[in-house]
Design a protein that fits this description.
Length: 176
């Protein structure tokens, strides 16, 4: 099955000039969703990489991150928008393709000896994943890999995370 066929493109959302990649058709199709998860799991099992924790960004990253944490028998650490977590947090600000924002993570969510897979649904400008990796590193844990379902290479996001092992299932070029 061609997974990219299950991604809907929405013009001018959430702002003028943005071609938003909507993953909900992929999620709604049980075979496509299963294949998506299975392909990511297979990639990391083949490489022999072990993760203690999976860190994912609110909100679409939670969908893939929590499932992958389950599949890898790892813990799951959510990155939330400011003010959403109840305990002491560390914070990282970032810019995306269309906004400026911040993430927070519980200060005690990761330990220095832990290895982490950072997961999101898409990499566009790279700001979200760069901020996630910085939070992991600030905790003392190690980023073993960064994974997305979709890559938009024309926005240059991979450049911001080039020091990390990166994997995506498929990409869309400009205008697709």
């Amino acid at each position: 099955m061609e997974l990219r066929e299950h991604i809907r493109t929405i013009s001018d959302f959430p702002k003028q000039g943005v071609l938003f990649k909507d993953i909900t058709p992929l999620l709604a199709n049980k075979k496509a969703f299963r294949q998506c998860v299975d392909e990511i799991v297979e990639h990391y099992l083949t490489k022999g990489i072990h993760f203690d924790k999976v860190v994912s960004a609110e909100s679409r990253g939670f969908i893939f991150g929590s499932v992958l944490a389950y599949e890898f028998h790892a813990g799951f650490v959510p990155l939330r928008k400011p003010g959403k977590l109840p305990c002491s947090c560390i914070r990282e600000e970032f810019k995306t393709e269309y906004s400026t924002d911040a993430f927070e993570m519980h200060a005690d969510a990761l330990r220095p000896e832990e290895s982490v897979l950072v997961v999101d649904d898409i990499i566009a400008s790279g700001g979200t994943l760069e901020a996630a990796a910085r939070l992991v590193e600030r905790s003392g844990a190690k980023v073993e890999g960064i994974c997305c379902v979709i890559e938009l290479p024309f926005l240059g996001g991979k450049e911001k995370i080039k020091k990390y092992d990166f994997f995506s299932l498929f990409s869309f070029e400009k205008g697709e």
